[in-house]
Design goal:
The structure holds 2 protein chains of 2 kinds.
Chain A: H1 9-40, H2 44-48, H3 62-67, H4 71-103, H5 110-119, H6 127-136, H7 154-165, H8 170-177, H9 182-193, H10 195-211, H11 214-219, H12 229-242, H13 249-257, H14 260-278, H15 283-296
Chain B: H1 2-7, H2 9-17, H3 19-26, H4 28-50, E1 57-58, E2 69-70, H5 74-81, H6 83-116, H7 120-131, H8 138-149, H9 155-162, H10 176-204, H11 208-216, H12 221-232, H13 234-246, H14 254-259, H15 265-268, H16 271-281, H17 285-314
Antiparallel strand pairs in B: 1-2
Helix pairs in contact in B: 2-3, 5-17, 6-10, 7-10, 13-17, 16-17
The chains are: A mainly alpha, B mainly alpha.
Chain lengths: 297, 319
């Protein structure tokens, strides 16, 4: 960036400092994950001896075998995958359709709809009125509570819209002259061009669904068939934290053989790995998406 | 669009009678693509505001919202007379202020240092690694924090003992006065890399000629960082900072819920948790709603105050 200039000692020391600092940041970020990974593959009796760092001392797969026998975890995994796939698909579809209509300068509803959406960024009804609404709509205790109330994010709509605004409008006009209707223009022209921004949005929505636990805690805590992966992990975490037991009969038996500590670590890895596999590949998209969103706000 | 009206005489006469409906018909696909979501946002964002009425009632779920007993400001008076409310408010403001200060300065420094790095591969690797925790849920992060801070074999205690700073493991999670710090550092660990993205992008947008000119003028590296890079990200910084001030009071409760425990609840309980506890778990909906309204009003006030100060200082405005 600075071009080739003669370097003095101070500059070199500063470079060295940056490299050391960045290495420490990388270690501090990775160490907890590697430590948990090591424990999850380590024999649980051996783990109690302590002193494990980033590699297992006595390698075993028993911790994983044990947790794959937990009914709650299997159901949770299934529900989390379903809500992530369905929620992301619907979320992206909804946000892009809404964004496209708001980007059309000739659309009658553009002005009032924009205002209607923008206003919601400044206020919210709050926790309790939201809860009462869900109750009134009969969504509590159902799987739909994961999909419907979180269908659309106004933020995402505006990010996609500003992306569409950046595309040449002539494309749409020439398609119109060729006889394409608004839906065809959206489906055939706009969507393919929006791929980078849609990838970003899809990643954000998917991560949000994958990581969400509070909706299960609040709305589905009495419905084990609607449990989610993060909620199951939270239950295990808090149960050993406060000393009460994780209420899964299977789990309790299993825990006698394999320590709760190892169970926790194995679940943590199962919950984390899918995300780690995906995000580095989308990095170039989300960095752009982040910038776009912030500039437009 | 004109040729279309000429082709169909019926449509043309409709146009004369009622331009609006004709155009609406032409744009029927646009309406089909947007109206469902307009209805959706009305239900899920506007209808709950109607629920604010419950704060002025003694709300019982079995009756409709209009058939409730009206109690005026009773819920608010009760709220302001509750000692617990002030503890919770203190915790909220303490943690959000600490988060605001740490959460803005450190990512800026991180971005500044990354920007000074020359080895592209190393730089990219550090960036990728630093984004990682952002994508992991707070449940997982809380688990990692417990693990790292535990008294038997937690990395932090081991490190501190190895450095001879302490001679006995500290029970981090049982010390109320440490909670705010632990929470702030955990948050920093999770979001530092992510929050630096936007500053890095702003730095990348600075005109390279500025650096070249200052090199000719004999400016050193630090002078360039101070006089070019930092002013270059000022606008981005201020916009984000003012928006965050608006969230000072509504910082959520996820981290506090997951990292807190009964031993440290005097330090970990925040407004939203308090609302959750009274409003939903104890069924005092009206009281919980009153807390929510207090939250919203304070947030809006804070944004306007922050924006006002910014306007005075710089003659620009953010919102």
């Amino acid at each position: 960036m600075q071009g080739v200039v003669h370097k003095n000692i101070g500059d070199k020391l500063f470079d060295l400092f940056i490299y050391i600092f960045m290495t420490l940041v990388a270690i501090a970020t990775l160490y907890p994950f590697l430590n948990v990974l090591a424990i999850s593959f380590n024999d649980s009796v051996d783990t109690v001896r302590g002193g494990l760092t980033i590699y297992p001392r006595e390698f075993t797969l028993r911790n994983y075998e044990t947790i794959f026998g937990f009914e709650g975890l299997i159901t949770g995994f299934r529900n989390t995958v379903i809500r992530t796939v369905v929620g992301t698909a619907m979320g992206v579809a909804a946000a892009s359709m809404m964004a496209y209509t708001l980007s059309r300068p000739d659309f009658q509803g553009r002005r009032w709809m924009s205002v209607l959406f923008a206003l919601t960024m400044y206020f919210s009804g709050g926790l309790i009125p939201g809860f009462l609404l869900m109750k009134y709509l009969g969504l509590i205790g159902t799987f739909y509570i994961y999909i419907i109330p979180a269908l659309l994010s106004v933020w995402n709509v505006f990010v996609i819209r500003s992306y569409i605004d950046g595309l040449p409008f002539a494309l749409q006009e020439s398609a119109k002259i060729d006889g394409a209707n608004d839906w065809t223009i959206f489906w055939r022209i706009i969507l393919p061009l929006c791929q980078p921004v849609l990838a970003t949005i899809a990643l954000f929505i998917a991560v949000g669904h994958w990581n969400s636990w509070f909706d299960t805690y609040l709305f589905n805590n009495r419905n084990p068939e609607n449990t989610t992966l993060q909620y199951e992990l939270m239950k295990v975490l808090l149960s050993t934290q406060t000393g009460s037991n994780y209420r899964d009969p299977n789990a309790q038996q299993a825990m006698a053989a394999v320590s709760p500590e190892s169970i926790k670590m194995a679940i943590t890895i199962v919950v984390t790995v899918p995300i780690l596999l995906v995000y580095p590949f989308l990095q170039k998209y989300f960095v752009k998406g982040m910038t776009l969103g912030a500039v437009k706000s | 669009m004109k040729p279309l009206t000429e082709m169909t005489p019926e449509a043309g006469s409709t146009l004369k009678r009622n331009r609006f409906w004709f155009k609406a018909f032409q744009q029927r696909y646009l309406y089909l693509m947007s109206l469902p979501f307009v209805i959706w946002i009305f239900i899920f964002s506007y209808v709950p505001v109607w629920g604010w009425l419950t704060a002025f009632q003694n709300y019982k779920p079995k009756d409709s919202i209009l058939d409730q007993k009206w109690v005026g400001f009773d819920n608010f008076i009760q709220l302001f007379q509750d000692e617990r409310f002030y503890i919770v408010l203190r915790n909220t403001l303490a943690m959000s202020t600490m988060g605001l200060i740490v959460g803005f300065t450190i990512p800026v420094i991180f971005a500044l240092l990354l920007n000074e790095m020359k080895g592209q591969f190393f730089k990219r690797s550090v960036q990728t690694i630093s984004y990682l925790p952002h994508f992991v849920s707070w449940v997982v992060v809380a688990g990692l924090v417990y693990k790292m801070l535990s008294t038997d074999g937690g990395a932090v205690n081991q490190l501190l003992m190895w450095l001879n700073i302490i001679d006995q493991p500290i029970q981090f999670m049982a010390k109320g006065n440490l909670f705010w710090g632990i929470l702030t550092v955990s948050d920093l660990w999770k979001e530092m890399g992510w929050n630096s993205i936007i500053f890095l992008a702003a730095m990348a947008g600075i005109d390279p000629e500025l650096y070249e000119a200052s090199t000719v003028d004999g400016a050193g590296r630090f002078r360039k960082m101070w006089h070019i890079t930092l002013p270059g990200i000022r606008t981005t910084f201020m916009v984000l900072f003012i928006l965050s001030i608006g969230h000072l009071i509504s910082i959520g409760f996820e981290k506090q819920f997951l990292l807190g425990n009964p031993v440290v609840s005097d330090y970990s309980e925040v407004l939203d948790l308090y609302a959750l506890k009274y409003g939903i778990q104890m069924g005092r909906y009206s009281y919980g709603t009153a807390i929510g309204i207090f939250n919203s009003v304070v947030s809006i006030l804070l944004v306007f105050i922050a924006n006002g100060i910014y306007k005075r200082v710089t003659k620009e405005t953010v919102i």
